[in-house]
Amino acid sequence: MLEINNLHASIEGNQILKGLGLSVKPGEIHAIMGPNGSGKSTLASVLAGREEFEVSEGEVSFQGEDLLDMSPEDRARAGIFLAFQYPVEIPGVSNINFLKAAVNEVREHNGKGKLSAGDFLKMVKEKSALVQLDGQLANRSLNEGFSGGEKKRNEIFQMAMLEPTLAILDETDSGLDIDALRIVAEGVNSMKSADRSFVIITHYQRLLNYIVPDFVHVLHNGKIVKTGGKELAHELEEKGYDWIKDEENVEA
Amino acid sequence: MAQKEEDKILREVTDKEYAFGFTSNIESDRVPKGLNEDIIRMISAKKNEPEWMLEWRMDAYHQWLKMTEPEWAHVHYEKPDFQEITYYAAPKKKPQLDSLDDVDPEMRKTMDRLGISIEEQKKLSGVAVDFVMDSVSVATSFKKKLAELGIIFCSFSEAVQEHPELVKKYIGSVVPKGDNFYAALNSAVFTDGSFCYIPKGVKCPMELSTYFRINEAGTGQFERTLVVADEDSYVSYLEGCTAPSRDENQLHAAVVELVSLEGAEIKYSTVQNWFPGNSEGKGGVFNFVTKRGLCDGFRSKISWTQVETGSAVTWKYPSCILKGDESVGEFYSVAVTNNFQQADTGTKMIHIGKNTKSTIISKGISAGKSQNSYRGLVKINKGAENSRNFSQCDSLLMGDRCGAHTFPYIEVGNPSAKVEHEATTSKIGEDQIFYCLQRGLDEEKAISLIVNGYAKEVLNQLPMEFAVEAQKLLAISLEGSVG
């Protein structure tokens, strides 16, 4: 589904990704961990198509297509969803209207036609219950005045509504208390399916107690330096990242 | 058939002469350019005006002669040469086109995107239409309905002829003829405009001019509007049009006067989309307008709503004089400037009566290399016990080459008054746009969403069908201004 090869990316002249490779198959959950500044969020931004990041080398293909050649909106329509680390506030834009525009845009792109108002509301009711946001959305502006936890839950709610093929969660767990963390994780788990993949970027192992990954990758200095199963996350939690850095230095 | 043939030939001939710049008999209904007493006499005579109207014009003219053009606004432009302007020309017929295919494709595209119906598009762009029974009967039934209620809604010239007592009583009662340079000029040379009177206790059942706007699309350079709402009456009045107006007259100096008597309410909404000049800042309309309302009675109310997207230079302060006790004034404004446009706009709320209340919500949006200023005065007079004002002035910047300025003036002469002023400036964020893109919306939709969200409080004040067009207009005006 997603094939990343030798990806090099920089921002304002600073090389952040230095030859990253990753292969994600349908239905898989990949966790990407790593110390601060290792390039985790850059990876998310490059996949979503942020213009500030310049890709100097490497390829990314998504469902057989050259992802780097696609505009951000086309990537979204093709089924890539990014749950933002810092969801922005857009004052005056109702959460529901925004979502309706987005859902219909994606549906139309995929030849499905717009949802009727009734069907849309039914879907909102069902999906918002997943993240316990029901009844709180209709009259509020997009993320405006939302607490940190509400913003993150709203991201997962949007994900549920947009039903992506590939969901990238960028530090969705940061700033969440334990209850909110569980709600978010349950939301994600309920969306697992054989043709939907997840790339979960996180700093801590605790989210992975709730969402069990098939693979854990350690990103360091712009490259994936170690890959393992879910045990790797526990090992990192215990020992920190220093041993990985040391290991890599030895290799180098 | 023969008639049609004749029209066609006439059209061809007139078009040709126009193209080659001949003066012809067809254009003889035009006074020489320049401004002096004779010109004013000629205008008045052509309109067959009573003596008092001519005297009124003359007085305005003499006051104007002693005035100088104001320079305090935060705008820069080359001053018009007032002797180079032609002050009277019988309304020029737009060239009739045979089908919409002949209309400037750019213009059509815009109208399509604004959601203007084909029928209206034809009328707006001067395409010859066969009589459509439907719209004619609609217009007739509207007029019949208004007449039954005693509502007067007609052109200013007609009002001078048919209702001189009302015109005489109210003209200049809110904007005196010597009020300011451009108001004085307008008072001397105004050629037409609209007049509206709502009798006591009557609630006007329709938005005035939603339908009529088509017929009024050809209004002139010095327009004058007078709306009088008698005791306990209500009217919602719409001015302007979202469709782009290309006008050869560079200077527009209109005057609008509103009078709201005891218990009455006037809601006045404007959408202004005059030619703003090209993207290099060449051409465009100078829009120097004086708009003022008088709340002249207990619990009277005036509410101004404006969406300003056009004109090269805008200079406009719809104001309320809150004379009656417990009277209410409101001002809701969205002003968009792009490219090289300059806008200096805002309001004045003059509190005179006790327990008067005013609200100001101003949303400026600047893009390109434009300059957008809010200028507002809140004045609480000595006797205005317990008066309240709330002002909110927000500016939204797109890009880093435009400017937003706020000039609030507050004068409080009574210690029991409460005046609140809030102001914010924000930039439309790359982050906000990217967020929308990531959810599958394209950039145009993203900007439209963000801008309309920002301006929502004002757009909500517009009558429904106008609001939808205004939303689209905002997005179109700002096209290409990000990234």
> Can you tell me the CATH superfamily of chain A?
P-loop containing nucleotide triphosphate hydrolases
Shape category of chain A: globular
- Report, as a whole number of angstroms, the end-to-end distance of chain B: 55 Å
Biggest interface pair, residues each?
A-B, 30 and 23 residues
**Count of discrete alpha- or pi-helical segments spanning 4 or more residues of chain B:** 13
The strands making up the biggest β-sheet of chain A line up spatially as: 6-9-10-3-11-12
Alpha-beta content class of chain B:
alpha/beta
Identify the overall geometry of chain B.
globular
The quaternary organization reads as heterodimer
Whole-number radius of gyration of chain A?
18 Å
Secondary structure: number of strands of chain B: 18
Q: Give the helices and strands of chain A as they follow along the chain.
A: EEEHEEHEEHHEHEHEHEEHH
**Largest sheet of chain A, described in full?**
6 strands, mixed
Q: Count the helices of chain A. How many?
A: 9
Beta-strand segment tally of chain A: 12
Tally of individual domains of chain A: 1
Strand content of chain B: 25-35%
Distance linking N and C termini of chain A = 31 Å
Radius of gyration over C-alpha positions of chain B, nearest whole angstrom: 23 Å
CATH class membership of chain A: Alpha Beta
Taking pLDDT < 50 over at least 5 consecutive residues as the criterion, the unreliable ranges of chain A are: none
